[in-house]
Amino acid sequence: MKQEQEPLSFFEELLQYNKLSFLKDEFINRFVDNDGMDIESIDAKTGIIKYVSAFSNPPSIEPVYAITSISFQKEFHKEINTEFLKAKKAIDDFATHITQQGNNPLEYITLQHNYIITLKEKAISVYPEAPIVKSALTSLLQYIEEKYNLNNNIKHIHTVAPSIENPEDYSPHSFLWDALDNETREANLSKLYDLLTIQPKLIECQKEEFINAFSQKVVSNGIKWRVKGKNGQISKSSLFYFITSLNQGYIVEIPDTELNKRVSYTFRNAEGQPFINIRQSKNNVSANPEGKERIDQILKDVLR
Asked: What are the residue boundaries of the structural domains of the chain, listed by start?
């Protein structure tokens, strides 16, 4: 259980000294080694690489070529967010392990808490130009303080609530993707949308609507769920499998009693109508619903 015992090892190593220049050069060299033939330009200062990418557009067989870009800063932010989520899970897993051995995890939690404070202070001086590092440690600190407050017994907190410019855009009925900042949240959700809409599509809606549905914002038309069961009908069982999987670390945790309302608000059947008998469908979720393997693979790929 090395990962659980050393949940902060990534941040500890990152904070040995300011590694941004080294990591940026490594990022560029790795890309050149893998995709050197398709590179249009490299900005070594900003870490932005422009390259030719091929897109398939079914049913056409001919690929479409376009210049796209990849940014070190965005990739760095994604990595910090991924490691933040790993650290949260590792701390929780080891605390559970200690409890299962019949011991109180408070000492372990206190040690992690105090060490995060030390790392957070170090992040301020080592990475003044990359506040995402400090933000990750601050959010981890808040998570531990809230979740392991035995008096209030709070199970989960919103890591970073969405910054919504117009209050009328906010909705308590939609979901919230668990991320350090809105930029990371939107990037993750954009990738998730792209994966879910590869033919044959699992969902159908505009990308903006999908991002809103998982950013605690108002949903206008809803997300059509396209997965069909063996009977040829839309599979509500697979929809609940998808949402239940998201609720295990991808989105800010929703109590089981709230899931029905959230699903009813955000998802629609093939005709664009709200689902009916949703409570019964949730209670009859199959252990192996239609599309399970693809859903599992998509959730593995989205944070890579």
From this structure: 20-74, 167-301
